[in-house]
Amino acid sequence: MRHPLLCAAFLLALAGIAGCAYPTRNEAIGSGGGHPYTWADPNPNSVGEALVIVTASGGGTRAAALSMAVLKTMDEVKLASGKSLADEIDILSSVSGGSVTAGYFAMTGVAGLPTLEANFIRKDGMTPLLLRGLNPVGLAVLSTPSVERIDLLIDYLDKQLFKDATFQSLVGRRPYLILNAADMVEGTPFPFTQNTMDLLCSDLTQMKLSTAVAASAAFPVALSPVTLKNYRPCAKRPPGWLDPALRTSWYLNPPRVAWARTADAYVKGEKKYVHLLDGGIADNLGVSEPFRLLTSDDVAPVLTDYIARGRIKKIIFVMINARSAKPSDLDKTQETPGPLAMLTASIGSSIDRASFGTAERLRNLLQTDFRGFANAAAAAGQKDAAANFRTVADNTQFIAVDFDSIKDPACRQRFHSIDTSWSLSGTEIDALKAMGEALLTESHYFPEALQMINGRPDRPFTTINEACALLPNPGG
């Protein structure tokens, strides 16, 4: 009788699970009662009037490892105060795999990087996810509304790193973390900030970091979306920037208008739920929100005001791009690709290529906007503000950590071909760590950035050639 009873108990348990509702990922505003997670006004620090921004792209463990390497290298640039450049990062914005590193760094600082490497980057993350999802109990649970495929990743991130920590743990700390997902219906970026969550009358501090990281890394089809509830209507008034943004000419500022239209749908309650997927769908570099903060007064922090008043006179912007450019066998045959090949190629290529060449365009856009602000301030008789904007335009160092800057084509292809999965070999991880260090420190703009903040290297850094030697040709 034991086996029939066990089977009956199992079926009853499944029936109970099947009756569960969909999981609640976000709470209504005011439910926490504590301070919100917003930009913390910086005190004068060892880099003086310099703003330090780091963005980290998507790309699975490859992106997480490359981002970790850059942050570790920044920690080995020492300043006159005895602090490191990593200690002085003001804004850290990320997507997908880069969000794992960014989220954990924001929570633990430099001290947490060894744990990140040991517990996540050097672990085989794919096998636990597959084993949990494909065993009979796992399949049964995943067939119910209460547990979705994205929960496999959320639970794994909590087990290995975040331990159910929420954004509340980041209140008042540096750097200011911006994890980026994408609204799968609108195709617009969804930055996890309180500014964004206000549109949904939701409290960011009550959200688990693992949930936001998983939303940022929810690769289409393979993982289910993270679904947020819109708590509108509520007492929270629509933001003051929304109406002016809606009246902006689309021809003058398409991104502002697109985001305003999405935000308007949130505020009006037209979208009862927001389904979020991998942020790479909309911005695989995590640069859109930092760029908006630097060039508009729509949302806090209003960095243009900091610049106009001379509080920010220098900017160091490090953009980490772990995009893939792996050769495809589809190019070697006339055979028509199958549905799965077409699906994966269309999703992967659109995410990876969306970041191609962005670094130089962003540099030019920032300098153009700053000079435009200077001209507008001068025309308004604001001489000091005009001078301050010109100063920033001339003192913005933009450093791109990008495999495309590897001159050796064979080496460049080897790094571009590293898988974007959650499991890499020890050799690949060692090579990525070395290459992240080398690409940062051999950038044309790195010496100028060091001079600007009076920074000095703690030790000789790995070269690109040395990093290339750590990742041999697959054929030997």
Q: Any overview of this molecule?
A:
The protein is an alpha/beta fold and 476 residues long. The protein is built from 20 helices and 12 strands. The protein has helices spanning 2-18, 60-75, 96-108, 113-121, 126-134, 136-142, 149-162, 194-199, 209-216, 242-247, 254-267, 288-295, 303-308, 339-353, 358-379, 383-394, 409-416, 426-441, 446-453, 464-469, and strands at residues 27-28, 50-56, 77-78, 91-95, 176-183, 189-192, 202-203, 226-229, 273-278, 314-321, 396-402, 456-457. The strands form 3 sheets. Strands 2, 4, 5, 6, 8, 9, 10 and 11 form an 8-stranded mixed β-sheet that branches. Strands 1-7 form a two-stranded antiparallel ribbon. A hairpin with a 5-residue loop joins strand 5 and strand 6. The longest helix has 22 residues, at 358-379. It is globular, with a radius of gyration of 23 Å. Mean pLDDT is 86; it is low at 4-19, 137-141 and 345-357.
How would you summarize what this structure contains?
This protein has 476 residues and is of the alpha/beta class. The chain is built from 20 helices and twelve strands.
- Gap from first CA to last CA: 60 Å
Strand content: 5-15%
The beta-strand count equals: 12
Structural class: alpha/beta
| Mean of all residue-level pLDDT scores | 86
Q: Identify low-pLDDT runs.
A: 4-19, 137-141, 345-357
- Secondary structure tally, helices: 20
Basic shape: globular
Largest sheet geometry: 8 strands, mixed
Protein topology:
Layout: H1 2-18, E1 27-28, E2 50-56, H2 60-75, E3 77-78, E4 91-95, H3 96-108, H4 113-121, H5 126-134, H6 136-142, H7 149-162, E5 176-183, E6 189-192, H8 194-199, E7 202-203, H9 209-216, E8 226-229, H10 242-247, H11 254-267, E9 273-278, H12 288-295, H13 303-308, E10 314-321, H14 339-353, H15 358-379, H16 383-394, E11 396-402, H17 409-416, H18 426-441, H19 446-453, E12 456-457, H20 464-469
Parallel strand pairs: 2-4, 2-10, 4-5, 10-11
Antiparallel strand pairs: 1-7, 3-12, 5-6, 5-9, 8-9
Helix pairs in contact: 2-3, 2-4, 2-18, 3-9, 5-6, 5-7, 7-9, 15-16
